[in-house]
């Protein structure tokens, strides 16, 4: 389960800026999470990608 804790403080550590394109519908999901959690878009996307990577299973062709 992907869980977000509500937090209002900001942390900045070891980050770089990149452009990542997502569908409008995906961004709407992210914005809902921003509104509910108080976290930034960047923080939510970072956590979601780390979560997906940690639970990734590779399929052989």
Features:
61 residues, mainly alpha, 46% helix, 0% strand
Description:
It contains 2 helices and no strands. The protein has helices spanning 24-37, 41-54.
Beta-strand residue fraction: under 5%
Number of helices: 2
Radius of gyration computed on alpha carbons: 13 Å
Low-pLDDT segments: none
What's the overall geometry?
A: globular
Largest sheet: none
Order of helices and strands: HH
Return the structural class: mainly alpha
Number of strands: 0
Concise synopsis of the structure shown:
This protein has 61 residues and is mainly α. The chain has helices at residues 24-37, 41-54.
Task: Provide the fold topology.
Layout: H1 24-37, H2 41-54
């Amino acid at each position: 389960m992907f869980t977000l804790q509500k937090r209002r403080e900001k942390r900045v550590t070891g980050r770089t800026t990149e452009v990542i394109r997502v569908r409008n519908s995906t961004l709407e999901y992210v914005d809902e999470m921003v509104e509910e959690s108080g976290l930034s878009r960047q923080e939510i996307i970072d956590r979601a990608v780390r979560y997906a990577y940690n639970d990734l299973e590779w399929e052989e062709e």
